[in-house]
């Protein structure tokens, strides 16, 4: 385990990208692991990031929401190609929108977070608790025909959270806890604004330019028990409400990617759906709640996440049996670059082998 080399590279990358603080976990299917931290969880208080620091997972939360929905499909309580409208009568939905379309972002529903009016509403009252109906009110009315385009939209996962509650009679937070977090012993992960934090919290930062060059971190909101702040987390619902440690995030994706959460058939459907979304223009190959990308020349599955003040990524490389999670408390620098650099240390490309020397026995 090249621990010293990994830590030195991590520190160098944090300085290069002006990241206030970050936490990284690399886990192998054979049981090995490496945890690395660098920088500050709170700059003003000079509190360092530790392996037990929790970060807002943002859209990585979608993988948990999708897993609950896919387990319900496995149980016969939902069907991927069933229309959603009859199950959510409180929302005026096109009857052609299916569960699958919500999962893979082909429903055509625009993202309420992209509505220009919502930022002022969220940031002017950061301690307010939003309801799904509040978020839905910001969904634009103009929408393409369902199934004809791929458009990443938090609205899809807001509705999936509502769908879980309609089918089970219990909140998405409760289903995530009972189905996923507790069975997998993810003790440092929690549903924000519903459950109490289960890790020490980090402060999210904007990176603003300094007059003499470089950037300075400025906290996006006063410290509370919700990262980055309550209004945006409650507005997101099933699209982005979880908080957690890098260790748990890596272990989660290792379990999901490694087939420990879903049936084999549902696992194949989750990943295989990415082919269909690419065919209709997906910017990132996207399956049923999962991104399928290439990382350092290897196929990787996982998800990225971004909020004001937080940015994260987690990837599982099936061929190598390696998972990496990179969590940061800023929203500018792409943590995928950190992940790629660290993986080049633990998974170096093999040197090309020399041609074998001819031998007498091999001669014709």
Annotation keywords:
364 residues; alpha+beta; Beta-lactamase; seven-stranded antiparallel sheet; disordered C terminus
How would you sum up this structure, described in words?
- It is built from 11 helices and 13 strands.
- With about 375 residues, the chain is an alpha+beta fold.
- The chain has a single domain, classed as Beta-lactamase, CATH 3.40.710.
- A 7-stranded antiparallel sheet has the order 3-2-1-13-12-11-10, with helices on both faces.
- A hairpin with a 5-residue loop joins β7 and β8 (about 215-220).
- α1 runs antiparallel to α11.
- The termini are far apart.
Poorly predicted ranges: 352-364
Biggest sheet statistics: 7 strands, antiparallel
Count of domain modules: 1
Order of helices and strands: HEEEEHHHHHHEEEEHEHHEEEEH
The CATH architecture: 3-Layer(aba) Sandwich
Give the count of helical stretches: 11
Label the overall shape.
globular
Please state the average pLDDT score.
94
| N- to C-terminal distance | 46 Å
Beta-strand share of residues: 15-25%
CATH class: Alpha Beta
